[in-house]
Design a protein that fits this description.
Helix content is 51%, strand content 17%. The chain has helices spanning 3-10, 103-106, 115-119, 122-136, 142-164, 171-175, 179-190, 198-205, 209-220, 224-242, 247-253, 259-270, 274-292, and strands at residues 14-15, 19-24, 28-31, 36-44, 47-51, 58-60, 65-68, 74-78, 85-94, 111-113. Strands 1, 2, 4, 7, 9 and 10 form a 6-stranded antiparallel β-sheet that branches. It has a 4-stranded antiparallel β-sheet with strand order 3-8-5-6, with no helix packed on it. β5 and β6 form a beta hairpin. The longest helix has 23 residues, at 142-164. It is globular and about 65 Å long. The chain starts with a helix and ends with a helix.
Length: 293
């Protein structure tokens, strides 16, 4: 099972259209990304990225990639001499709700992949010319192709960030280096409705009960069964946002036979009841549609 894909799908990421801004300096782009994971790729010229959560100005050169994983409004400003050409490819993923999975807490505010580093990643090196060609192409199906390319580039950036955490002893990214813990994650992600006990999970993943508890806590700061609750609540958020299933049916599909127990777990992680979450989500969706009309 692809754990990262499962996490991103359940978090409800919604991609925006990949776009390119190019032209003679000076110019500036204001990006409204307070609830998005954004990225920018500099293809020509030099730019500066500034925003309320940037600890410093990010100065980017041709070939540099930046991922702004903790959504915030920011500007992209040219710093190339006036009259010279600047080209930036941008994209972002909207997050209508705050995901509860720990990976979203571990993602850095900004992650920069310099041009020389990107060149050393064959997949990214081969992908960039394809992206440029599609952005310049007005043939039928171009929008669909761009959305697919956005997915691919975003996943390559996440892989690059995960690779930098290889050998880390803490965090979800570091835990992925342990094959036995990956087995634990896979069991929980594929059988989230099962009423697991720590003994059963340890037995099926090849751990002793104490070793599983210790290793899981060491890497994630969490317990396996609380991690399971997180997965269930994230799935519940997805169902509450995208279906009209009654609360009891959502609870059942997420592994809870008791709707009250489900509501209590949901509120403990999100700060609101399932019913309040659904009503707020619906109101925000209506407001978005009216704003886009």
């Amino acid at each position: 099972m692809d754990l990262l894909t499962d996490i991103l799908q359940q978090a409800g990421l919604q991609r925006a259209v990949l776009r390119q801004r190019e032209g003679s300096a000076p110019w500036v782009i204001t990006c409204r990304c307070d609830r998005s994971i954004a990225f920018h790729l500099v293809r020509a010229g030099q730019v500066t990225i500034e925003g309320c959560r940037c600890s410093q100005r990010l100065e980017l050169e041709p070939g540099d990639l930046v991922m702004l994983a903790r959504g915030f409004d920011h500007t992209v400003t040219t710093r190339t001499p006036a009259g010279q050409e600047v080209a930036v490819i941008s994209g972002h993923y909207r997050l209508w709700n705050d995901p509860v999975h720990m990976i979203f807490r571990e993602l850095p505010t900004t992650f920069v992949l310099r041009g020389a580093e990107a060149e050393e990643i064959p997949a990214i090196r081969r992908l960039l010319p394809v992206i440029e060609a599609e952005l310049a192409d007005l043939q039928m199906g171009a929008d669909s192709a761009r959305r697919g390319l956005l997915d691919v580039l975003f996943n390559y950036l996440l892989r690059a960030w995960l690779d930098r955490h290889t050998g880390s002893e803490t965090g979800w990214a570091g835990a992925l280096q342990d094959p036995q813990l990956v087995r634990v994650f896979t069991l929980l992600h594929t059988q989230w409705t099962r009423s697991w006990t720590l003994d059963e999970l340890a037995s099926e993943s090849g751990f002793s009960r104490p070793t599983l508890a210790r290793r899981f806590k060491q890497h994630t700061g969490d317990t396996p069964l609380h991690y399971l609750t997180t997965l269930r609540v994230q799935r519940a958020m997805h169902l509450l946002s995208n279906t009209l299933l009654p609360i009891g049916a959502v609870a059942d599909q997420c592994g809870y036979s008791d709707a009250f127990v489900f509501s209590k777990a949901f509120k403990r992680l999100t700060g609101e009841s399932p019913r309040d979450f659904r009503q707020r989500n619906l109101a925000e969706a209506v407001a978005r549609q009216e704003g886009e009309a």
